[in-house]
Amino acid sequence: MFRIKTLNKISPAGLSVLDQTRYSISGDVENEDGILVRSADMHDYQFPDSLRAVARAGAGTNNIPIDRCSEAGIVVFNTPGANANAVKELAVCGMLLASRKITEGNAWVKAQLAEGADLEKVVEKGKSQFVGPELSGKMLGVIGLGAIGVQVANIATKLGMTVFGYDPFLSVDAALSLSRLVHRAMDLDTIYKNCDYISIHVPQTPETKGMINEGAIHMMKGGVRILNLARGGLVNDDDMLAALESGKVAAYVTDFPNNKILQGKNVIAIPHLGASTPESEENCAVMAAQELRDYLENGNIKNS
Ligand code: MLT
Question: Fewer Cβ atoms within 10 A, N terminus or C terminus of the chain?
Answer without folding.
Answer: N
